[in-house]
Design a protein that fits this description.
- This protein is 48% helix and 13% strand.
- The protein has a single domain, classed as Rossmann fold (3-Layer(aba) Sandwich), CATH 3.40.50.
- The chain has a six-stranded parallel sheet with strand order 3-2-1-4-5-6, with helices on both faces.
- Helix 3 links the parallel strand 2 and strand 3.
- The longest helix is centred in the middle third of the chain and has 28 residues.
- Helix 4 packs parallel to helix 5.
- It is of the alpha/beta class and 247 residues long.
- It binds nicotinamide-adenine-dinucleotide.
- Nicotinamide-adenine-dinucleotide binds next to helix 2, helix 5 and helix 8.
- Its EC number is 1.1.1.239, 1.1.1.62, 1.1.1.n12.
- It holds the Pfam family adh_short.
- Pathway: Lipid metabolism; fatty acid biosynthesis; Steroid biosynthesis; estrogen biosynthesis; Lipid metabolism; mitochondrial fatty acid beta-oxidation.
- One of its GO terms (cellular component) is mitochondrial matrix.
Length: 247
């Protein structure tokens, strides 16, 4: 099937769409024909992503929106405004919003632990719940929800007790969502990227980056628009719940 016909008429919500992986997801989905809602806590970044999206196909309408995924109220407003704008909930949702607040376990502040869990784990829960509730309420026959975990959630990483715990939680959340939502035709999958060059990894000291690189067979970090995006597109178009968890 031609790439440009695969996602036509799919309305896609991408949280964290203002930067890095989320931005690359927005750009790829738009180029595949989807209408994209770029949602981010930073209005400026969301608008910047929106300005970079292709929209040549008939019926393609993109929208930028501000959301804080750790706030139920903020997500409710977002879903309502999407439904007002498009007369339907998003049938594809990619949860790419995420943060790090790295510190060694011995000195990690409680509020830094809580904030990372609130954005990465609770945020994925709240968005998944709000989007699936909207899909079920309108009687949609199918939907696809993707969460972004991390290899760190499987193997741990120095200085990232909070982040590793949040990403391990995202996997458990997604497995359970997949089991509960399959009867509504909603597929749920979690991708676990390795290390990808984005503003998030820009914060990691050079010394640590070169250590990480040495663990990667290719000897370099991944790119946001690389294989990861191909996997995300496949998850929305080709795979069924029963054959695909991301790992
Ligand atoms: N870069 C990597 O190596 C890597 C590896 C594995 C997983 N991930 C995950 O991929 C996702 C995207 O990361 P990235 O590397 O593109 O980072 P990034 O910092 O470039 O992008 C994250 C985006 O999330 C937004 N955001 C932060 N808090 C938010 C909130 N409360 N509500 C809404 N938006 C919020 C930010 O404004 C930013 O635009 C994250 O979940 C991250 O944990 C990244």
């Amino acid at each position: 099937m031609a790439a440009a016909t695969r996602l036509i008429s799919r309305l896609t919500l991408v949280t964290g769409g203002g930067s890095g992986i989320g931005r690359a997801v927005c750009q790829r989905f738009a180029s595949e024909g989807a209408s994209v809602v770029v949602a981010d806590i930073s209005e400026e970044s969301a608008n910047e992503t929106m300005g970079s999206l292709s929209g040549d196909l008939r019926g393609q309408v993109h929208m930028a929106a501000v959301v804080d995924v750790s706030s139920k109220e903020s997500i409710k407003k977002l879903v309502t405004s999407i439904q007002t704008h498009y007369f339907q909930p998003p049938s594809v949702c990619v949860n790419a919003a995420g943060i790090t607040q790295d510190e060694f376990l011995l000195s990690m502040e409680e509020e830094h632990f809580d904030r990372v869990i609130q954005v990465n784990l609770k945020g994925s829960f709240l968005v998944t719940q709000a989007v699936s509730q909207a899909l079920v309420a309108c009687g949609a026959s199918k939907g696809s929800i993707i969460t972004v975990g991390s290899i760190v959630g499987k193997v741990g990483n120095l200085g990232q007790a909070n982040y590793a715990a949040s990403k391990a939680g995202v996997q458990g959340l997604t497995r359970t969502a997949a089991k509960e939502l399959s009867r509504f035709g909603i597929r749920c999958n979690c991708v676990l990227p390795g290390f990808i060059t984005t503003p998030m990894t820009d914060k990691v000291p050079e010394k640590v980056i070169s250590k990480l690189q040495s663990l990667v067979p290719l000897g370099r970090l991944g790119e946001p628009a690389g294989q990861l995006i191909r996997l995300l597109v496949k998850l929305n178009c080709l795979f069924s719940l029963h054959v695909c968890y991301s790992e």
